[in-house]
Amino acid sequence: IKGLEMLTNYYKNPKDSGKKILIEEMIKRDLSDSLILCGKLDAAYVREDCIVEIVDYKTGGNILPVDNLQLSIYLLLAEQKLGYYPQAVSNYYLMHCDKVIKEISKDDVCDTIECVKGISSKIESEKIYACSPTPDCINNCEYSSICEEIKDSNALMIRYLKTLRKDDLEDAIF
Fold first, then answer.
1. pLDDT in tens, 121-140
2. Worst-scoring range by mean pLDDT, 54-63, 81-90, 114-123?
């Protein structure tokens, strides 16, 4: 019932009217040789006042403060796709039919790039999230182009064979 109520409120009083230029699109952006930023933007549109705005639809019940890092990352991804930085980003709270808009400067975007690079360096140095690739990674993982573990095809095949049951293993070998 809540979903139907959200949709009804949205269609009665949309707060994202204008020309849609991007809808539910996965975007990847290389920030360095070892850092790929990827994400799916909900929407971007040109408002009636000619401002390009990225919208992140929220279905939860709480209106939270704007997450500058998340929305700045969306700006970086949108710039990759559109060729320019949109002038506004927003959280659209469908439950409340309310939208919180935030303007983010180029300085904020530069700060975001440095922050993301710092987080990436920390993750790489901690090695907490060990990679355990399979042959499927080559075609399905957005990090396959920078993954050192995938480059060792023998180790990749041994890892894959260890995941098979004995019957499947005999079929795979013979």
1. 887 776 665 667 777 777 77
2. 114-123
The 3-class SS string of the chain reads: CHHHHHHHHHHHCCCCCCEEEEEEEEEEEEEECCEEEEEEEEEEEECCCCCEEEEEEECCCCCCCCCHHHHHHHHHHHHHHHCCCCCEEEEEECCCCEEEEECCCHHHHHHHHHHHHHHHHHHHHHCCCCCCCCCCHHHHCCCCCCCHHHHCHHHHHHHHHHHCCHHHHHHHHC
pTM (two decimals): 0.67
Max CA separation in the chain (angstroms)? 66
Residues 6 or more apart whose Cβ sits within 8 Å of residue 141? 133, 147, 150
* Cα gap 111→106, rounded to integer Å: 9
- For 86, residues 6+ apart whose C-beta sits below 8 A from its C-beta are 44, 51, 52, 53, 54, 75, 78, 79
Enter the tokens of residue 111.
């700060």
Please provide residue 56's backbone torsions phi and psi, each rounded to the nearest 5 degrees: -110, 110
Tens-place pLDDT, residues 48-71: 999 999 999 998 888 877 677 787
